[in-house]
UniProtKB/TrEMBL annotation:
Residues 141-351 form the Urocanase Rossmann-like domain. Residues 354-548 form the Urocanase C-terminal domain. Its cofactor is NAD(+). Gene3D superfamilies: Urocanase like domains (3.40.50.10730), Urocanase superfamily (3.40.1770.10). PANTHER family: UROCANATE HYDRATASE. Belongs to the urocanase family. It comes from Hymenobacter sedentarius. It is an enzyme of class 4 (lyase). The gene is hutU. This is Urocanate hydratase. InterPro entries: Urocanase, Urocanase-like, Urocanase_C, Urocanase_central_sf, Urocanase_CS, Urocanase_N, Urocanase_Rossmann-like, Urocanase_sf.
Length: 558
């Protein structure tokens, strides 16, 4: 990690309107990189790990310093190339070209295995970029919160008459992104019991407001959940423990949850905790990684076995984690039916895909000034721009009441094809008129409608069988470069592990200029448009209808 290059002062994103770089675009990239690393935001600051077990913002502290220096020196017509967390070149391009191009964890397909990646990682040649960790657009737990909220709202509509009131959801994981689940459940008026093996992570989520309360033990946790259920209130309870241990205990007690899911880091066995006392487990990880991975896989099999048994007893089961089912399958557990379908579905095919067909996904923005009032002003503009959208109004009200700003103030909002372009111009106009105090960085999760191929998660069960076709995220990255995004990234593995997905990210900065307005129109049409193209091509009639209604040009679709 080259700790001798670690800054003496803790890294946090700069605030205000003083530039350290030669353009706001480069300054935005620098501030978002700093924001990813900020210990209030990141998972393991010393190792530059942002979230997802091992997702880094830079390869090591030496390369971090080089990236920072390069961004500060970058001319308005230059582009920095970043290869798995290391700045490797600066090109003379154009003022309207991306300032940064990033590729993380990408391997030739036949070599794209966790084992080979780990070897390269140990040699200092690669890093795991996860999704938004290595593309510098992570906004802490809020980043996945609305998508999680939308998922649980869809579950409420399909199974519980429109509300989770009076239901209990059991889940696992309270890492960087995982705090979204308990808050999303309570925002839908349900009760959530979440199991996490590292006690400090439970305490942190209580401090941040993503979790309401920490239980002393399992009996206490169930007492708190049953009480909240009886009172019909939204409430979340964290329990320190291992899901592989706790879920079988729930079955032994005859406890029946209404929903069971997870958000654990199972994609890399080094990040999933085996059963046992946590200090002993962590010592094993340091002293004998192979034995640790063996025990982690055994724990995953127990975890998924318990989920399947809960499903048999009437609980709604849905996968929301990082390849938990796929790892259980590697461990020898049957997780598919005779047709090859998972015995319990992922959240995208079960609840979210219709939104993807409309070009909707986790669109997000952050205030580079660091002023929370900028986000609140944009919230008002959002409601004024889409006054007929009652779901959006409900989300903003709940987000303002319950979602803390961690690091640079930010907001996430699911907007579709046509809506993103419209609102990007609204944001740019607010910057131009000085109604917000600085430029606004606009991006999204890589988990978006047209930017990912991930057969065990986002593209599971595609209608035409194209689950593993990775051309789409490659085209997404190329299209965003052509349209004028400010930085573009292309990653392997994020969310579900090396070799299991390809995905791309884009960011564009609203600086308030007419030139940037033109680029915003193109990028914020191009990017969600890839979701329309991808799903229309796969045979989804909703996507084809949206293309016709909103003027997305697709050869062969009239």
């Amino acid at each position: 990690m080259f700790y001798e290059f670690k800054p003496t002062e803790t890294v946090r994103a700069a605030h205000g309107t003083t530039l350290r770089c030669k353009t706001w675009e480069a300054e935005a990239a620098l501030r978002m990189l700093e924001n990813n690393i900020d210990p209030a935001v990141s998972l393991v600051y010393d190792e530059l790990i942002v979230y997802g077990g091992a997702g880094r913002a830079a390869r090591n502290w030496k390369e971090y310093q080089t990236i920072v220096k390069t961004l500060k020196e970058l001319e308005p017509d230059e582009t920095m190339l970043v290869q798995s967390g290391k700045a490797v070149g600066v090109l003379k391009t154009w003022p309207h070209a991306p300032r940064v191009l990033i590729a993380n964890s990408n391997l030739v397909p036949a070599w794209s295995t966790q084992e080979y990646f780990d070897q390269l990682d140990r040699m200092g040649l690669m890093m795991y970029g996860q999704m938004t960790a290595g593309s510098w657009i992570y906004i802490a737990t809020q980043g996945i919160l609305q998508g999680t909220y939308e998922t649980f709202a869809a579950m409420a509509d399909q199974h519980f008459g429109g509300s989770l009131r009076g239901t209990i959801t059991v889940t696992a994981g309270l890492g960087g992104m995982s705090g979204a689940q308990p808050l999303a459940v309570t925002m839908n008026d349900g009760v959530c019991l979440v199991v996490e093996p590292i006690d400090e992570r439970v305490k942190q989520k209580v401090r941040e407001g993503y979790l309401d309360e920490q239980a002393r033990d399992l009996a206490h946790a169930l007492e708190l959940c049953e009480q909240a259920k009886a009172e019909g209130k939204g409430w979340s309870v964290g329990l320190t423990g291992n899901a592989a241990t706790v879920l079988p205990q729930l079955l032994e007690r005859g406890f029946r949850a209404d929903i069971v899911t997870d958000q654990t880091s199972a994609h890399d066995l080094m990040d999933y905790m085996p059963e046992g006392e946590i200090d002993t487990v962590l010592a094993l990880r340091a002293s004998n990684p192979e034995e640790f991975k063996k025990q982690a896989l055994q724990a995953i099999v127990k975890h998924v076995s318990a989920i399947l048994e809960m499903q048999k007893r009437g609980t709604i089961a849905v996968d929301y984690g990082n390849n938990l089912r796929g790892q259980a399958e590697k461990g020898g557990l049957p997780v598919r039916d005779e047709h090859g379908h998972f015995l319990y579905p992922g959240f995208v095919p079960a609840y979210i895909r219709p939104l993807f067909c409309e070009g909707k996904g986790p669109f997000r923005w952050a205030a580079l000034s660091g002023d929370p009032q900028d986000i609140l002003r944009i919230d008002r503009a959002l409601l004024e721009t889409f006054p007929e959208n009652n779901l959006l109004a409900r989300w903003i009200a709940k987000a303002q009441a319950k979602v803390p700003f961690i690091g640079l103030p930010a907001r996430v909002c699911w907007l579709g094809y046509g809506e993103r372009e419209k609102f990007g111009l609204v944001i740019n106009d607010l910057v131009a008129r000085g109604e917000v105090s600085g430029p606004i960085v606009i991006g999204r999760d890589h988990l978006d409608c047209g930017s990912v191929a991930s057969p065990n998660r986002e593209t599971e069960g595609m209608k035409d069988g194209s689950d593993a076709v990775a051309d789409w995220p490659l085209l997404n990255a190329l299209a965003n470069c052509a349209s004028g995004a400010d930085w573009v990234s292309l990653h392997n593995g994020g969310g579900v592990g090396i070799g299991n997905s390809t995905h791309s990210g884009m960011v564009i900065v609203a600086t308030g200029t007419p030139e940037k307005a033109e680029r915003l129109k193109r990028v914020l049409t191009t990017d969600p448009g890839m979701g329309i193209f991808r799903h229309a091509d796969a045979g989804y009639e909703l996507a084809q209808d949206v293309a016709r209604e909103r003027g997305a040009k697709i050869p062969g679709v009239k």
